[in-house]
Every structure is written in C-alpha cells, then in structure tokens.
Amino acid sequence: MEDLSLHILDIVENSVSAGAKNVEIVVSENRPRDLLRIEISDDGKGMNPAAVAHATDPFYTTRTTRKVGLGLALLEEAAKMANGSMDIHSVPGIGTKVIAIFQHSNIDRKPLGDMAATIVMLVAGSPDVEFTYRYEHDGYTFTFQTKEIRAQLRGLEMNSPDTLSFIREYITEHTVSLS
Ligand SMILES: Nc1ncnc2c1ncn2[C@@H]1O[C@H](COP(=O)(O)OP(=O)(O)O)[C@@H](O)[C@H]1O
Ligand SMILES: [Mg+2]
Q1: What's this model's pTM, rounded to 2 decimal places?
Q2: Distance in Å, CA 174 to ligand 1 centroid
Q3: What is the whole-number distance in angstroms between the Cα of residue 6 and the centre of ligand 1?
Q4: Class of domain 4-174
Q5: Closest ligand 1 atom, CA of 66?
C-alpha cells in the first residue's frame, strides 16, 4: 500500500466488520514535534486481551473469506518503517482504538494520500455508520461528520452520487495536506 489513506480504509473496515455504529478517524500532523499520528476509534464489539495480542499476527484472522489478515500487520510495519509504532486498545463490548505514529520527516514515511476518497468509499459502503474525520495540522483543525450531512439530506440517500460527490469536494477543499 502506497498511501496512509489506504491503510486507514483497511483499518476502518475492521471497525465496520466489528459492528461499529460510530467510527472516529483523527489524523494529526505536527511538524514542530516531527510527528504524524493516526487514531481510529470505534464502538464495535472489541477484542479480549488474547485477541489484541494476536491481532497484528499476519496469520491471525477471524474472517472466513481469506486465511491471512494483514490490515493491522501492514499498518504496524508502515509505522515501524518510519521510526514509529502502533498500539491497539480494546475492550470487549465497548470498542477499539488503534493509534499509529510516524516520524513526519522520515524518508520512509508514506504520504497521507487521498483521505477524501477513503471517506467517500467508507460512506458509500456503510451509509448507516456515523463517521467522523478530524484533520489537524500545526494548529489548524478540520472536522467532517456524516451526522451533520445526514441532518441536511432532505430525502437524498447518504450514499447517493450527489451526496458522495459533495462529501468528496467538501473534504478535499478543507484538507491542505502537508505531506
Ligand atoms: N476494530 C476492531 N474491532 C474488533 N476486532 C478487530 C478490529 N480490528 C481488528 N480486529 C480483529 O483482528 C483481526 C485482524 O485484523 P486485520 O489485521 O485487519 O486482518 P483481517 O481484517 O483481514 O482479519 C480481525 O480478523 C479481527 O478479528
Ligand atoms: Mg482487516
């Protein structure tokens, strides 16, 4: 995977598979501290400590469609390549939080990529889930919430082409990425 946005797509798909109704994605770029941080929190079914311990093992998966589970293993590898790390906090019945940090200036740190495309794909695939995307860099904060869009749909579907292209443009306009 070339871009962090594709890793994020993959990790959020775990949240959706875990039955999450609310998913929050926070990307913060902090150049003074030379950090890029990704945090993905959900209110899905969670994992017990043994499942968390196995979650980054490429041969551990609870999926039945494919024998290897790589989403978390690949994000951890991407973080480590950029002098960073990944952590998973999970409580059964409450939810899961995945935090990955990267050295911002590291030559091997992947670019953030197209977050608007990632959010659009998530909303298109799971129109009933509430997604929040917060993007912070050096004091600037942008927050996108499907909850706010939903309140203004006036009969349009959340995953209609018009809604999705509005979301794409809205996020693209407000995220001047530094990477
Ligand atoms: N947000 C989450 N909530 C609950 N379980 C999760 C979550 N993320 C990952 N898991 C568990 O960890 C396993 C490994 O995830 P992942 O590395 O993405 O591989 P895959 O999704 O292909 O199985 C999943 O099969 C699932 O059992
Ligand atoms: Mg996965």
Answers
A1: 0.94
A2: 31
A3: 16
A4: alpha beta
A5: 22
Question: Which of 10, 72, 75 has the most ligand 1 atoms within 8 A of CB, as the residue to mutate?
Answer: 72
Judge whether residue 164 has pLDDT over 90: yes
**Greater model confidence, 58 or 11:** 11
Classify the phi-psi angles of 25: left when phi > 0, otherwise alpha if psi is within -120 to 50, otherwise beta. beta
pLDDT tens figures, 21-63: 999 999 999 999 999 999 999 999 999 999 999 998 887 677 7
Strand pairing partners for 22?
A: 130
Rounded to 5 degrees, φ, ψ at 137 are -145, 125
What are the residue boundaries of the structural domains of the chain, listed by start? 4-174
Buried b / exposed e across 73-111, counting CB within 10 Å, b at 16+? Answer: bbbbbbbeebbbebebebeeeebbbbbbbbbbeeeebbe
